[in-house]
Amino acid sequence: MGLAGGMNVFLRGLLAGLGPHGIRTDVLTRGKGTEEETTLPYPGVRIFHIPCARKEPPSRASAWEALPRFIEGAKEWLARSKAAYGAVSAHYWMSGVAWLGMGDTPGVSGIFPGGCRPPVVFMYHTVEARKEGPEGGPGDFLRRRRMEEEERLAGASARIVFLSRHDFERTGKLFPEVAGKGVVIPPGVDEAFRRLPPRQEARKKLGIPSEAFLFLLAARPDPGKNVEAAITAFRALRAESGERVRLLIAGQALPGPGLPEGATCAGTVPHAEMPALFSAADAVLCPSSYESFGLVPLEAMAGGVPVIVPEGGFWGEKIQAEGGGLTYPRGGDKGLAEAMRSVYGDKTLRSLLSEGGRRIASRFTWENCTASWAWLLPNVARPGSPR
Question: Is 192-361 the same fold as 2-188+366-380?
Fold first, then answer.
């Protein structure tokens, strides 16, 4: 199978499990340097880093600027390799655009054996048209272009994978062509999140007192993550409950003067170090306005840490039905502050939520995820093509 796109937490979990199912995978991704590089992270998986003038630190805008060079580099690589792929899996919209771009040049089909491009399995991860975004800002052009391309990919893809039924149904209302192509395959959760490191050890490393009650918020810089709403709610709870309440924000570095007493930012944290943060936390805040799935709530619950999420959405509905955390009405900060107050003040409630979260998370495994992909890809592939 051919697989276009970058690596992230989801892809690492997926790629590691495809080889045991007999599926050979090549990954084409943007390289950092000026020379093509190859890495072999898992059995049956080869990653080819295509030089394309990648800028550091990476951003959506710089990725878009580098996309034409990546497409040309990928074409050159495919022409040299003469590899025969049964199907292509594109994760993220720019990966899909890159694959569609392979057919923009007359005669490009000659880089594929038999002159026919393999069918593409696409995965949105998130859908731009479902996000609350600013109009007319510096990133508005890229936002509009993304929405156009995501709609085009709904028609061009052979299958579209969604992480939840909730996301599938709501995306289908925007893009009717998704209806007959959607497949729901939930992700797994790494075993490190089911067996967290010792709590006191994690707290000592972070400088969190043993008697403190720690809320954790893990999110990249993005207005849709609603970090400011969480800070406002924390400030209100801190004023009521005193110094015992703490807030740790991971994934970004907010200005120190803008944070209330008791709140700190950890900046970017490697995924391998996240289990220690969950171990140190008493509850995890996930106030995003839109998530197609949301790995942070799953990872938190796998470790028995209660989560707080808005009503609606995949996790909002599941938690209301099965436990594992608390939900609050969308809009404003009072609902979030009240949920934080409830989980902070009730140890018995936290114990029940912890048990519920572990129970829910036990159903999400990489074995189930990769087995579903290993069934899907050969069924989408051209007849007679290699696995």
Answer: yes
Q: Please classify residue 183 by burial: count the beta carbons closer than 10 Å to its beta carbon, then call 0-12 exposed, 13-18 middle and 19+ buried.
A: middle
Q: Does domain 2-188+366-380 have CATH number 3.40.50.150?
A: no
Question: What's the gap between Cα 198 and its chain centre?
Answer: 26
Query: Which residues, at least 6 apart from 348, have a Cβ–Cβ distance to it below 8 Å?
Result: none
Q: How far apart are CA 305 and CA 299, in angstroms?
A: 9
Q: Where are the domains of the chain?
A: 2-188+366-380, 192-361
| Backbone φ, ψ for residue 6 (5° rounding) | -90, 170
Q: Give percent of the chain above pLDDT 90.
A: 71
The tens digit of pLDDT for each residue in 30-80 reads: 888 888 999 999 999 999 999 987 677 778 888 899 999 999 999 888 888
Q: How many residues does the chain have?
A: 387
Query: 192-361: which CATH topology?
Result: Rossmann fold (3.40.50)
Q: What's the CA gap between 206 and 222, in Å, rounded?
A: 24
Confidence (pTM): 0.91
Taking the alpha carbons of 47, 52, 56, 58 in that order, is the dihedral positive or negative?
Answer: negative
CA distance 215 to 247: 5
